[in-house]
Amino acid sequence: MRQFCTWILLLLTIVNLQALEKLKIIYSWKSLDFVFPSEHARLAAIKSGNFIPGSPLPIDVDVYNGELKSTVFIAIPRFQDGVPLTLGYVTDEVSLDGNTLIAPYPNWSYNDAGNCASIISVYRMQIDECDRLWVLDTGKLKSKQVCPPKLHVFSLRDNKLITLYKFPEHQYKDEDSLFVTVAIDVRDTTNNCKDTFAYIADVTGFALIVYDFRNSRSWRINNNLFYPYPPYGTFNIKGDTFDLMDGILGLALGPIQNGDRILYFHSLASRVESWVPTSVIRNYTLFHENPEAAARSFVPFEHERSSQSVAQAMNHDGVLFYGLLSDLAIGCWNSKHYPQFEGKNNEIIVRNPETLQFPSGLKIITSKKGKQELWVISVSFQKYMSGTLHSNETNFRIQAGFVDELVRGTKCDVSSLEGRFHRQ
């Protein structure tokens, strides 16, 4: 009997290890370091305070699978001093203390915090199916609005700027707004992909901004569901507790069905997921004079998640992936076969108390071979908030795994459920 129990424990350990390895660590850092033009330039940046080692904290990741190579982009907002660049990509170079170096994108001059034509501060970006990188620029240094918030759109085929859009003053509140998340809705890939909309979360202004690329215009939408939920403004993550009353942050687009698609969204200080048809929010006529129009078109799901969540993304099968902060895990929900977002329909596909501390960035990437991949960046943000972030331990990780392996055997395994639901 004792041998049997030992065998069972060994089997469970192997299964758990296999589950942990479904998300593989691609990069990890104790602290971020950068590819400066020279060692002299690096030392000068440190001396001037433009670079404070240990200060930069990454928030988002995205991946471009180009013809010649893949590029991993990283966003590092300037909400504190000492961040020399805010948009970069991971290189093959390594610092003397073992940290993979990050280079500026598209170059150093375009990351100049003193020039409003440059990129000031980026929380998140999005690469679309038309090989464009959409960079959402808050225009803020720490809490000060030094420039208007902007969208910088680059062609990744030649790394040239396609367009730069400044949001009108009436669409943001100087010290109160913070544009942190962008979701790109390409309606038609013909005609240079001009029929594209960007949906933008104003996390502290509690609003959704819609940008119409074809017509170079934007509008602001207000709704009660964009606000934080006071009972969930306290976060408990692996022994650290902090308060943050942030509103709408997580955005995810569903697949196109009957010419329309759903935008799923949630506030950071919340456990509620909500949704709205994009046909509603793309209606400029409806909102440009009344930001509070169509209030009942925004619908919350009745049931809540087990904890607060930051980033989320939905794949082309309609499976929503999201981080669970207190659970130190990644969860999923299969909207195709289980329309109600609720506990019995949600699954935890990976749980790791070390590597999944505050997953702040999450993307679904299609590989060159056509396989869907889940990419996650986790940043130990709770340690930053509690003042316990130390550069002698691993703080930031980029992980990735194949979606089909992550969901296998769960309710989010769409391919295995197709036959069963068809028979029913």
Would you give an account of this structure?
The protein has 424 residues and is mainly beta. Helix content is 14%, strand content 37%. The chain is globular, with a radius of gyration of 21 Å. It starts with a helix and ends with a helix. The model is unreliable at 1-20 (pLDDT under 50).
- The helix content is 10-25%
Q: Report strand %.
A: 35-45%
Q: SS-based structural class?
A: mainly beta
| Widest sheet, order of strands | 1-28-27-26
**What's the pLDDT, averaged over the residues?**
93
Number of helices: 7
The stretches of 5 or more residues where confidence is low (pLDDT under 50) are 1-20
Outline? globular
Q: Can you summarize the main beta sheet?
A: 4 strands, antiparallel
Number of strands: 28
What Rg is obtained from the alpha carbons, in whole angstroms?
21 Å
From the N-terminal CA to the C-terminal CA, the straight-line distance is 42 Å
InterPro entries: 6-blade_b-propeller_TolB-like, MRJP/yellow-related
Organism: Bombus terrestris
Keywords: Glycoprotein, Secreted, Signal
Protein name: Protein yellow
Give a brief rundown of this model.
With 424 residues, this protein is mainly beta.
Strand-helix topology:
Elements: H1 2-20, E1 24-29, H2 39-48, E2 60-65, E3 70-75, E4 87-94, E5 100-104, E6 122-127, E7 132-137, E8 140-141, E9 144-145, E10 150-155, E11 160-166, E12 179-186, E13 196-202, E14 207-212, E15 217-222, E16 234-237, E17 240-243, E18 248-253, E19 262-267, E20 274-277, H3 278-281, H4 284-287, E21 299-300, E22 312-314, E23 319-324, E24 329-334, E25 346-351, E26 359-366, E27 372-378, H5 381-386, E28 396-402, H6 403-407, H7 414-423
Antiparallel strand pairs: 1-28, 2-3, 3-4, 4-5, 6-7, 7-10, 8-9, 10-11, 12-13, 13-14, 14-15, 16-17, 18-19, 19-20, 20-21, 22-23, 23-24, 24-25, 26-27, 27-28
